[in-house]
Amino acid sequence: MSAIHNDERGTMNEERGGVASSFIVHRSSLDVQAVRANFPILKQQVRGKRLVYLDNAATTQKPQAVIDRIVRYYTQENSNVHRGVHYLSEVATAAYENARTTVKRFLNARDEKEIVFTRGTTEAINLVAQSYGRANVGEGDEVLITAIEHHSNIVPWQMLCREKGATLKVAPVNDAGEVIVEEFARLLNERTRIVAFGHASNALGTINPIERMIALAHDAGAVVVIDGAQGAPHATIDVQQLDCDFYAFSGHKVYGPTGIGVLYGKQSILEAMPPWQGGGDMILSVSFEKTTYNELPYKFEAGTPNIEGVVGLAAALDYVTSIGIDSITAHEQELLAYATRRLQEIDGLRIIGTAAQKASVISFTLAGVHPHDIGTILDQEGIAIRTGHHCAQPIMMRFNIPATGRASFGMYNTLEEADVLVDGLRKVIEVFR
Amino acid sequence: MNELRELYQQVILDHNKNPRNFREMENASAKIEGYNPLCGDHYTVYLQMADDVIKDVSFIGNGCAISKASASVMSSTVKGKTKDEAERLFDTFHRLVTGDRSGLSAAELGRLAAFSGVSEFPARVKCATLAWHTLRSALEGEPKEVVTTE
Description:
By secondary structure, chain A is α/β, with parallel strands linked by helices. Chain A is built from 14 helices and 19 strands.
């Protein structure tokens, strides 16, 4: 079980061995000013104010190392991969495949063959639904998700179930925004083919007890897909220890470029899956009578890939690793605890999502003020937050609200920025008084 | 704060807090929903037409201050107007909130002038025009059940 102990700012808790997905808080050793210096975009002013970027659950900013890596790729290495015999093609192919090794290490996968590059988490989940799902889900079967999922972990399964005559089941959440594991377990049965859930919720911040949920799903004989879009930026991930069948994440939420993501899949499962998209790179030989598909992972990478994205992603993961995921998590948990306490000082502010274990995401409403108006007024103060339903309309309905404001913190945010947010919200109240 | 005060003028704050004609309408001759999927603003506009004249108009729903105040001001502005007059008012309003004020007189604008600050906030134009788009669809008797601004 992963666990968080953050009763107070910077509180230490014991290290635990054998944790597959660690949101465990260590003492924050992160030098936030040194980290900030690595992110050129943070130096700018917006609307005459210093930028306070609190929309990291939507996308993170990019460190200079990532920007430089992409520039170097186009300045010195650009070529197509896996085909040319010339020098640049060899360089580009080596960079592309070395990046796969970097991802393999980041997830602690067994083999590079288990790492498929996609456009992002959404495409990775669609790949599983369309390839594994269409081959293994039939009429009367069930797919189980939770009430807290992002639309990208709902709609692909709805599409699959509609096509196959299968049923989509949804595990409910409690008033804190936590999946009710007993209900989740009760919904599992011999017809459950696929179980898909997020590592952490983008809308409320809830961290799911994924190890327990994976074990329960496996006991029922189902295959498990983890939407790690909000997990990878905040937690150490060990897919072997988790024993999940698939884990998907996006580069741009972990300080890398947009348009690149990863699908991890167990080799034996990926081997048995039919290809998804057809085209170049995913084949060994083609005639008009018969095509022989390429081996893993190329079977699932049709067409010229996003090479700049792949090398940029590897640079981002190297950067994150150099800072240390444990340090990042500890810093973010300190921010979460502090910002939560400061926000609770504001009359009429209600935090939506009060799970015992949360990523550094705070969704909130303010009495009498629509989130969209909050967003506009904070923007005038240079503060970037997200407002709306966060692509998770069902969970908004669960709490009977149309939308929330959401502040989400990354490794470069400071306690002072949480104070600026609180001051900004007081201005919102002043305007609407 | 100046641009904010310009956006959130007293008229807007007042109409947001106490929206006029904020009710369902029985026997409406037209009822149409407007939805902005970006921010979740969601309104239903009711019309009671007598020939070509808007005899009564009301709305329900929820959304941000700009969208709700706009729906409220719209409802009190177009009541008693003909269909053509309402269309012209929408045109005037649209030009105001998109910053094209050439030839717009204060008399023509009336209460709509409270929305002049919207043009400085391009992301909010859709909020301000949602109810108007919905009204126009209702007036034109479009078969669409839900009008969206996307």
